[in-house]
Amino acid sequence: MKAIVFHAHGPLENMRLEEFPDPAVGPEEILVRVRAVSLNGFDPMILRGIPGLKTPLPMIPGADFAGDIVSVGSAVDASKWRPGDRVTAMPYIPRVGMMGETLRGGAAELVAVRQSQLIRMPDKVSYVEAAALPTAYGTALRMMVSRGQVKAGETVLILGATGGVGTCCVQLAKMLGAEVVACASSAAKAEKLKSIGADHVIDTSKQDFVAETIRLYGKPKHWGGGGVDVIVNYSGGDSWAQSFRALKRHGRLLICGATAGYDPKTDLRYIWSFEFTIIGSNGWEMADQVQLLDMVADRRIRPIIHSERPLAEIRHSMQELIDRTVFGKAVLIP
Ligand SMILES: NC(=O)c1ccc[n+]([C@@H]2O[C@H](COP(=O)([O-])OP(=O)(O)OC[C@H]3O[C@@H](n4cnc5c(N)ncnc54)[C@H](OP(=O)(O)O)[C@@H]3O)[C@@H](O)[C@H]2O)c1
Hints:
6-stranded parallel beta sheet; single chain
């Protein structure tokens, strides 16, 4: 089969489309012909190499994909899964690893997955839409709903709202009845955030997100009032401590990552004096992914697709992620 492969960590040039052996299919496994695979913010990080994460090489990237069953292993329930079925998969296998990180991913013509990972696609959901959902939208759903419990009437500030996780957070917050302030690093992306439902947008290339939030809601006071109820901050870095100045007393800070740095300088005084709750969120459940597919089938949310390119153009899509010119999800078609 043809697959995107990197044999060593490093720059984008290390990632190539090449001939690679078809995956071996074990008795509990299913061979899927990939029709669409999407990229995530962590794909360039994994290619470069993440300290503390051991990626076995050669690696095929791509956690999130959708396609058709080609064949099933001897121990697979053949009454449930048949060649031709439209499927997607949970890329994370508990206690084993994550596809594209420690297990080979779906940026290839074929991929083998365990029966326990497979999810049937509703007819009304396209391959591109299903491939866009798992990691970004799954993580957003868990962070905003199960962990963050965002409610109607709350005000929610979302930093880095233009990416995969962010565009889903905007839509979920609106669906839950919250008022959304969404941040982007360019005027063009800020305008697009309005088109997916954001009530207010902040262009961080020109505006200070703390000053703008205070302009909208007032300065947070120790006795209550001012600021927003919830801040979604997976950017980290300098924005981490700055966020504290825009959060209301008893506010919640939701975090699932640290794109701009995991060890920022911080100011602990805000946490106790404003009685903040910091809520971490990691991954998602298979049930979240099934729920998201139903939400897309009913058009309650829509995956925001930045681009659909041939698999061979993966470097172009990865470069756009690095350059922060992506709005939503970059999808590749084998
Ligand atoms: N814990 C989990 O289970 C889990 C799962 C998925 C993702 N994550 C994490 O969640 C975060 C978002 O993931 P994603 O896939 O949505 O990424 P993404 O598509 O790259 O989006 C991230 C957004 O953050 C902004 N950004 C990019 N680089 C930045 C930088 N150096 N400094 C500040 N802002 C930057 C960009 O928006 P602007 O340019 O418009 O600001 C970008 O659109 C990442 O940190 C990722 O590792 C965690």
